[in-house]
Amino acid sequence: MNQQLKVQIVTLLFAFVLTGCFQSVDNETMAQTTEQKQATPKGFAVVELFTSEGCSSCPPADANLTRLVEIAHKNKLPIYALSFHVDYWNYLGWKDPFSQRQFTERQRAYARALRSSRVYTPQMIVNGEKGFVGSNRRQAQEAILAAFKTAPSASLQLVLKDATEGLQISWKTKGMKAGDQINLALVEKTAERKVSAGENEGRNLTHVNVVRLFKAIKSPSASGSTMMQTTEKVDWKKYRVVGYIQAPQTLQIKAATEAELKPN
Q1: Do the beta carbons of residue 109 and residue 74 sit within 8 Å?
Q2: What are the boundaries of the signal sequence (predicted)?
Q3: Contact criterion met (CB below 8 Å) for 105 and 114
Q4: What is the pLDDT of residues 108-152, one digit of tens each?
Q5: Alpha-carbon distance 58 to 18, whole Å?
Q6: 86 neighbors 50 (Cβ within 8 angstroms)
Q7: Mean of the pLDDT values across residues 148-177?
Q8: Which pLDDT tens digit goes with each residue over 51-106?
Q9: Residue 133 Cα distances to 62, 65, 90, 115, 122, angstroms
Q10: Where are the alpha helices (DSSP H) in 101-246?
Q11: Looking at the whole model, is its pTM more than 0.85?
């Protein structure tokens, strides 16, 4: 099977999974589905969701991201999800415990790159290029399928190691251009909070891949390492690191991967 056909098969499979089209299949279709699952997309999709526990429109987008993560893991698809909690809703009575000003500034940088006059929640951005309302499943599907068709222009590998002073993250890259940066996001796989004030008062909210620490390494060497430190002792099994190479001006994402700490 040639690579172009593999890409077409996998993107079609993903479209079927997202739209719930697998209702009943005959033996021939089942055989084709088995072959489809063995193929891999040509590209990848980094899905960044800008959200807030203080925003009543955000829970459906959080659920959409959760759905994408489940689909990706079940079908082994290269979708790398990140939940960035912004801080500009905090004044409405509920301070989102996951929010950081750094994430708000990141969203504003996207607004400038995408020539948008505003920032809003919930917003999804795929591969730094396509932005839309984060609860819109169809637009998420279309953006991810489009991303699958473009081969990465670089490569990135990560290895994690538990160290005395924190989490050591080592990387190896190929194909980076001058000025590119490596983004490293320490994400909590799942998180839940009961909201006692604000627009979501009384609701139990759940999230996936919540960004807890974020580090941008500007003009890195082709290989190297860095440390991520938390203010308290954590169970690293509940976390993973999502890494991606990004152009600083256009914010186009060129490669991505994720890694978890291997058990001793």
Answers
A1: no
A2: none
A3: no
A4: 999 999 999 899 999 999 999 999 999 999 999 999 999 999 999
A5: 20
A6: yes
A7: 94
A8: 999 999 999 999 999 999 999 999 999 999 999 999 999 999 999 999 999 999 99
A9: 11, 12, 20, 16, 6
A10: 101-113, 137-148
A11: yes
Q: At 130, which helix (H) or strand (E)?
A: strand 130-133
CA distance 240 to 214: 12
Reported residue count of the chain is 264
- Tokens standing for residue 19: 């739209």
Where are any strands of DSSP class E within 175-238?
181-194, 204-218, 223-228
Q: Which pairing describes strands 223-228 and 166-174: parallel, antiparallel, or unpaired? A: antiparallel
pLDDT at site 6: 53
**HSE toward the beta carbon, residue 113, CA cutoff 13 A:** 20
- H or E element at residue 4: helix 3-19
Answer for the pair 196, 133: CB distance below 8 angstroms, yes or no. Answer: no
Nearest to 129 by CA among 117, 118, 113, 140: 113
Residue keyed to tokens 């801080």: 87
